[in-house]
Amino acid sequence: MSPSSGPAPALVVVGASAGGVEALQALVAGLPADFAGCVLVVLHVPATSSSALPQILDRAGPLPARHAREGDLLAGGQILVAPPGRHLVVLGDSVALTRGPQENGHRPAVDVLFRSAARAWGARVVSVVLSGSLDDGAAGTVAVRSRGGLCLVQDFDEALYDGMPRSAAAAGAVEDTVPVTKMGAVLTEFVASPVLAEAQAVTPLMDMETQMADLDPEAMHGTERPGSPAGFGCPDCAGALYQIDEGDLRRYRCRVGHAWSPESLLDRQALGLESALWMALRSLEEKAALNADLGQRASMRGAERTATRFEENAQEAWRAAELVRRLVVELGGGASDPDEARTAL
User: Fold this and answer.
1) Cα separations (Å) of 191 from 16, 44, 61, 104, 196?
2) Given this model, what pLDDT does residue 265 score?
3) What's the CA gap between 59 and 243, in Å, rounded?
4) Which is nearest to 68 in space by CA: 31, 106, 95?
5) Considering only Cβ atoms within 10 Å of each terminal Cβ, which end of the chain, N or C, has fewer?
């Protein structure tokens, strides 16, 4: 089936991560061949990987699926998938692919897609958060709800990783948790129904954040930043983070646009701590080894006092290295990252 020639009556924006491929297959399998909406999908995958997700979804249901291309029009009856390493941004009736700042450590990021769709399409957007860890998609879900859109998440017990659905629901913007096999019927009804909700005005914050994802120069070079200084540094660029509060949802953004939810920030800080500990361990081991070597050479020359000094330095470095090694063990080797699909999709 080919996408319709006319514009879509509604946008379905879908975000998923770990465990999301199976959920996406089940979702698109439940959509009818005459589905009039346009489906946009973000799945967390490493930027350097290839992606076979469009082919997987194309086989899973009746709608054609492919990677989105710069400037694609949002026609009904099609599935557009964000390619690895690019944000999928909705701009009016078309999409842009950008290398904007990562959000929650991801590009593509679910929040970017959801927020830009809400900004452009208001109450004609339905967002769907599927299986995934941590909380990408929560801020975007709040944006969709603020503009009068419909917000759904996968049933918690059904999701292989329930972090993303639970985070979106906890943000207070979700109407219902739905088994993925029943989402097709809900989405079909939404797309076929007239828009009854009146969208709230686009906020300056939503404008600015969407423009930053699109690397808009005015937004990037502007001197004003939303929120208040958080006292934390950005893990991606080491710049100062600003705290943004939206209802019960707290998140952070730096001057150049990297955005973090609390859980994602903690996860990345844990990775940074692990890296710092390994660097310290390496430095101490090298210091101990060099002192031991110098001590042996001094002993061979008969300089016993010098040899003793180097040996004492080596022992001190080894004791410190052992303390750092124990820290690495106690911290469990840092945070795990099931959020990215390790298989090339």
Assistant:
1) 21, 26, 18, 30, 12
2) 92
3) 43
4) 95
5) N
| Measured distance CA(74)–CA(77) in Å, rounded | 9
Catalytic residue among 72, 136, 162, 267: 136
127 given a catalytic annotation? no
17 is catalytic: yes
272-311 pLDDT tens trace: 888 899 999 999 999 999 999 999 999 999 999 999 999 9
Pick from 300, 293, 91: nearest CA to 207: 91
Determine the 3-state secondary structure of 163 from DSSP: helix
Q: What Å distances lie between residue 84 and 42, 71, 124, 200, 314, CA to CA?
A: 9, 17, 27, 32, 47
Which of the residues 17, 131, 146, 167 is marked catalytic? 17
Residue pair 83/97 in contact by the 8 Å Cβ criterion: yes
The number of beta carbons lying within 10 Å of the beta carbon of residue 229 is: 10
Is there a catalytic annotation at residue 261?
no
Q: Can you tell me the mean pLDDT for 66-74?
A: 97
Among the options 44, 87, 106, 258, which is catalytic? Answer: 44
Beta-carbon count within 10 A of 274 CB: 17
Q: For residue range 185-202, list pLDDT tens digits in order.
A: 999 999 998 876 666 789
Quick one: which of 10, 40, 41, 288 has its CA closest to 124? 10
- Average model confidence (pLDDT) across the chain: 90
